[in-house]
Amino acid sequence: MTALKDLLDLRFGDAAFAIPDALADNDALRTIAGRGVVRRFKPEPLAPGVLETLTAVALSSPSKSDLQQRDILIVEDAGIRSRINDLLKDQDWIAGCPHILVFLGNNRRQRQVHHWRGHAFANDHLDAFFNASVDAAIALSAFVVAAEAAGLGCCPISVIRNHAEEVSGLLGLPDHVFPVAGLGVGIPAGAHFVSARLPLGLTVHRDRYTEATEDAVSGYDKRRNTIFPYRAQRNIARFGMAETYGWSEEKARHYAVPERADFGAYVRRRGFNLE
Ligand SMILES: Cc1cc2nc3c(=O)[nH]c(=O)nc-3n(C[C@H](O)[C@H](O)[C@H](O)COP(=O)(O)O)c2cc1C
């Protein structure tokens, strides 16, 4: 197994600190540091009990104030699955994914508890949506870490929210329950790669926030291209062919086009007050 130091050097390029011996040999840390998204899977389903075990482990993750405002929905019904494949057909890997899960924010149970215990819910504002979203994201992350530690591959699916209304109908989601992300899971069909991240000098702050500079981000673009350059440029028809193309150009092009602009309206229709 690659040393933790080598994995972090590859990932960040500026991990210039000494890793204590007690951490350097920790297999769990090496697995997380060397992880990568998987979008190609062997066709066979996971053995019975695997998803259930990983789900239980994922739901052992922290939850804001122990409110437990997140759930996991395992898609098993072939009709529902085929409808989801159809909705998400722009992402060609999804149909070949043996299992799809949906991580849900759930502020409904909290409201039910208020009703059952006879206390008014006095927190009908943005925080109700935010806390449930964060709890669901934490459970998603814990599931990915657990699955990858078990040798499986995963890819989160935010595009499921491009069809939030249809998906909610399909999965029978009531008010105050909403999809945060889907997750494809299975046995990887090949090796993953370690994708370079922004330097720690930009993303770890000490005492006070330090502003990112264009030079530092351009340096990351260059370093990343030496490891795994983009195979194609995004939306050449609109943006043209750039001479140098890196992460920052890719991300700026990505979000120069509106995505899910109707999500706020969907969340309000689910009963949330976002003020
Ligand atoms: C919340 C979330 C949503 C994501 N949604 C999608 C998606 O809809 N489609 C996809 O192909 N990848 C999706 N991804 C995977 C990311 O593109 C991937 O994690 C990122 O490129 C970094 O790669 P790495 O995980 O290998 O480091 C998502 C990841 C996260 C955390």
Low-confidence stretches: none
* CATH topology-level fold name of the domain at 50-192 and 260-269: NADH Oxidase
Give me the secondary-structure category. Answer: alpha+beta
Biggest sheet character: 4 strands, antiparallel
Listing every helix as H and every strand as E from the N terminus to the C terminus, the arrangement reads: HHHHEHEHHEHEHHHHH
In percent terms, what proportion of residues is strand? Answer: 5-15%
Distance between the first and last residues' Cα: 49 Å
| Superfamily (CATH H level) name of the domain at 50-192 and 260-269 | NADH Oxidase
General shape: globular
CATH class of the domain at 50-192 and 260-269: Alpha Beta
Unique bound compounds: flavin mononucleotide
Radius of gyration: 21 Å
Q: Mean pLDDT score, rounded?
A: 97
Q: How much helix, percentage-wise, in residues? A: 40-55%
Short description:
The relative contact order is 0.15. It is built from 13 helices and four strands.
Describe the protein's architecture and organization.
With 275 residues, this protein is an alpha+beta fold. It has a domain at 50-192 and 260-269: NADH Oxidase. It contains 13 helices and four strands. It has helices at 4-12, 21-24, 27-33, 50-58, 78-87, 108-117, 126-149, 164-170, 200-203, 214-227, 236-239, 247-254, 263-269; strands spanning 70-74, 99-106, 153-157, 177-186. A four-stranded antiparallel beta sheet has the order 1-2-4-3, with helices on both faces. The protein is globular, with a radius of gyration of 21 Å. Bound molecules: flavin mononucleotide (FMN).
